[in-house]
Amino acid sequence: MKPILSESGHAAELSVASTNALLQQAAQDMAPLALRGLTFSWHMIHFGQKSYKPGDHASDHIHRHLHLESVLNGVFRFEHEDTEFDLKPNQSLLFLPDTVHAWECKEAGVMLGALIDVSGSARQDFFHKAYNSKGSMILVSDASCASRHGELLRFLTAPPPKAWHTAAVSSALRLLLIDLLNSMVDLSPWRQAAEETASDVRSQDLCRHAQEFLESNYPHPIQVRDIALQLGISPRHLNR
To answer: How many CB atoms lie within 10 A of CB 133?
Structure first.
């Protein structure tokens, strides 16, 4: 069992094995987040194998994925190149792939660690922009992410509901990932491209359905408003 603080600040106990299994299953069940040329999903997420005590540490290491460390309680010192940072509750660090870093527990506590898959044709551009904007070690300490951590802990520390427990955790993980990514880098270029693509696809679908309607009813008199009615749009929109 692992002592941990719930959203309300009250102490709770978590079974490490069962909680990590629940987290991983919920992560796998979550539909990936997608923008044009980018797809994001949890590769792995878990609590450490124990509550850390002062002096516990991990020496220099790297991860091939986008790496997250979030402090739930206690204080952990992270080192990257010539930079040191004491990470406290409600704060997270994101490390870009292949970033060498180390940590040491300064005050007893618990961390939530995760690896995030970033794939797609725009993957290199995404990391390039993130690095130029904030470097290879990115601090996330905004209130929205802290709130997401609290929500996740609430689902994990509360007695399981009769149904959809894993789905509830999966939903909390999805919202946490959204807030982390938005805190990490400006996603507007890829979001706008995705919205433009969706609009183009919608227009192509409407044209295809209009053509199918014309081919099926060509022996009969057809007016623009008849086609628009079948498509569920206005004649003006159809003309445009």
So the answer is: 11
